[in-house]
């Protein structure tokens, strides 16, 4: 059986790429297709595969500003030749599911989220964009949404990374989705023996919807040490807002991230995420999470046990959560956090995802009903 893995873009190792990494281990002979490729930024498990790109990869500046080419990505996907593959697994957060497959091949989409900038959070993107970009978005959004909906019917079976995302799939695409939580590489993290730490930590791509600005403002006002790991278009704005107690380390490798998680007092997670694997990596390190209590965090953080929720997306709410955590810091048991993370391990993901593929294959093999 020939397998193709289709991923939106490969320019770093975030949560979506961790799932792709697990799929690469499940299907070691699979070929990978993507819009943009920076092989140096990938793990050996991904970089070691045969990888083909769409024509987007050859356009000027595509490795750093790939999202400017979003309007061309539907065309690019439809030009990929996947006729030689029996199983196609698309990994969707950016455009990936819109590939065209053989009538007798099976297309399973693992969806991290329907594209947020087309649906849920487009007003936020409009607010942060320049005048010319806003005009372009207003002209292009209706067509991109129509294509996004139409291409969802090219998928035989949807698997969502959380109940939150399954609801979005039902809302925007009118499709049902099974839920299989992403895998956490538990072995990469070591749980501390007792509560405590040196600093607060923010970890991930520095984009507007992650709301790292709330953590920066809160720690600056409280004069609490904060370490920010990651790169993105919001970096310069965040640096301008930060007090001296905030340090920006840029992108760090996996070993450095594991060390930072183990040494931090708590992970600050102020964005509304689709799932968010970082809180589970924190739990695997015995580190509590202070999270905005909406979206995927409600499925990965146990309020009062593995972390604390704040109910408003504001710097003031983050400040209150930090102060409450500091009063209760000794209540969080690192070993209990570790056991919580272990229930999201990779073996569980492999078994559950393989079962979904088999269910989809069985459904596909049934003869159509004659009306």
Automatic annotation (TrEMBL):
A Pfam cross-reference name: Glycos_transf_1
Domain Glycosyl transferase family: 195-329
GO molecular function, a single term: glycosyltransferase activity
Keyword presence, RNA-binding: no
Keywords: Transferase
Domain Glycosyltransferase subfamily 4-like N-terminal: 15-186
InterPro entries named in the record: Glyco_trans_1, Glyco_trans_4-like_N, Glycosyltransferase_grp1
Segments crossing the lipid bilayer: none
PANTHER family attached to this UniProt entry: SULFOQUINOVOSYL TRANSFERASE SQD2
Protein name: Glycosyl transferase
Organism: Desulfovibrio fairfieldensis
